[in-house]
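hi! just following up on the protien thing from before. the input was this:
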Amino acid sequence: MVDTSRGDAPASPAEESRGCLFALSQPPLMIFLAVIGSLLLMAAVHDLFML
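and the predicted 3d structure came back as:
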């Protein structure tokens, strides 16, 4: 029978189950979302008041 184990110990549950709130707490992601949100806000304001 072929051995398919990697030889490494499995990751502990504390490292594995960080989830979405951990991803949203990262500064690069928050900066990216803030830039996209501000561009959408500026486009909406332009459409409402300038056109």
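Helices lie at 13-16, 20-24, 27-50.
The mean pLDDT is 80.
cheers
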